[in-house]
Design a protein that fits this description.
Elements lengths: L3 E10 L7 H5 L4 H8 L2 E11 L4 E5 L6 H8 L7 E6 L2 E2 L5 H10 L1 E4 L11 H5 L1 H6 L3 H14 L15 H14 L4 E5 L7 H18 L2 E6 L2 H7 L2 E6 L2 E6 L1 H6 L4 H7 L10 H4 L11 E3 L4 H4 L10 E4 L5 E5 L1 H13 L1
Parallel strand pairs: 3-8, 3-9, 6-7, 7-8, 11-12
Antiparallel strand pairs: 1-2, 1-4, 4-5, 9-10, 12-13
Helix pairs in contact: 7-8
Length: 339
């Protein structure tokens, strides 16, 4: 059973959205529904399974429905039709008390614009979810300090948001989201308001924490490079329709349609290909520097400067699982570039 199951979810905005649902089955277009019925199709029969412990990226351009979709997962928005299950629980069937408990224990959200309370210190902001949950002062402050340390903000506990940079404020938001120890972390364009270098740093902080915590992360972005950098799998939406789900390699090398193809056209594809996708079998007595099988090609290319004969590919435990040559690596990038 998947951690999150999204089953044929549609969202219609307008005065009488339920009456529009049958038109979706008739394949009436979004533009026709708006023109003829004055309703807006936000999501159209979207079905997804998100596995426990993966970073699942949902991406698309503005108006694609990606932020609408993530807001369904904690019921900030209710679907017009369809079902959403978390750990097998139909979240549409729970009452408000059960929903509140779900939000306090299983789900947490990190917002694009930080959403910090300006009159509270860093420590108080991070501890806020624990306070709402009813944890005692001492325990919630201890937990908050732990997460402040994990995002690299030791020493800033008594500062206020106005005294922090944008990147530091988003670290506070991330620490607050993790402090309640949720199963699922929802991140809605969480890094898009940051400068490129700070954004890159935040991506690495998230990945480092994920290597330790193994949370289920649902991450919304409009940036393909960001999706490729952090996503275990990526879903692409277009006008509320799910057009493709796959690994970064699958999205970049086998786009489902012209919309996805335009998305990936100018991307540096060596960032999407991992060593394990193109490595050869382990060769007895083959010698060379070792590289993790999960490395992106972009990361290991400099190693060929002094090791043209090849590189040894290893598993996480250090055992040898394959080898990689410069020729096969360049061939893979060339094929990806010219497909």
């Amino acid at each position: 059973m998947s951690k999150i199951e999204i089953d044929s979810v549609s969202k219609i905005f307008g005065d009488d959205p339920v009456t529009i649902v049958p038109l979706l089955d008739e394949d009436m277009s979004k533009s026709d529904i708006l023109e003829k019925h004055e309703h807006v199709v936000g999501l159209r029969k979207v079905s997804l399974n998100i596995e426990a412990g993966e970073i699942f990226v949902i991406m698309g351009l503005s108006g694609s429905g990606k932020s609408t979709l993530i807001r369904h997962l904690n019921r900030l928005i209710d679907p017009t039709s369809g079902a959403i299950r978390i750990d097998g629980i139909d979240i549409m069937s729970v009452d408000m008390k059960e929903l509140q408990h779900l939000r306090q224990t299983k789900l947490s959200m990190v917002f694009q614009r930080f959403a910090l309370m300006p009159h509270r210190t860093v420590l108080e902001n991070v501890a806020y979810g624990l306070e709402v949950r009813g944890d005692e002062l001492k325990s919630r402050e201890e937990e908050a300090r732990k997460w402040i340390g994990k995002v690299g903000l030791d020493g800033y506990e008594d500062r206020y948001p106005s005294e922090l940079s944008g990147g530091m404020q988003q670290r506070v938001g991330l620490a607050r989201g993790l402090a309640t120890n949720p199963d699922v972390l929802l991140m809605d364009e969480a890094f898009s308001a940051l400068d490129p270098l700070i954004r890159h740093d935040m991506q690495h902080i998230l990945l480092d924490l994920q290597n330790e915590l193994h949370k289920t992360v649902v991450f919304i972005t409009h940036d393909l490079d960001e999706a490729l950098a952090i996503g275990d799998r990526i879903a692409i939406l277009h006008d509320g329709v799910l057009v493709q789900v796959g690994t970064p390699e699958e999205i970049v090398l086998r786009p489902a349609d012209d919309y996805v193809r335009r998305f990936v056209h100018n991307v540096n594809r060596s960032r999407a290909l991992r060593v394990e996708a193109i490595m050869g079998d382990a060769v007895p007595l083959f010698e060379g520097p070792s590289i993790p099988r999960s490395s992106f090609l972009e990361e290991i290319l400099p190693k060929f400067v002094s090791n043209e004969d090849g590189l040894v590919v290893v598993n996480e435990d250090g055992s040898v699982c394959g080898h990689l040559t410069l020729a096969s690596t360049m061939d893979a990038i060339a094929v990806a570039t010219n497909d």
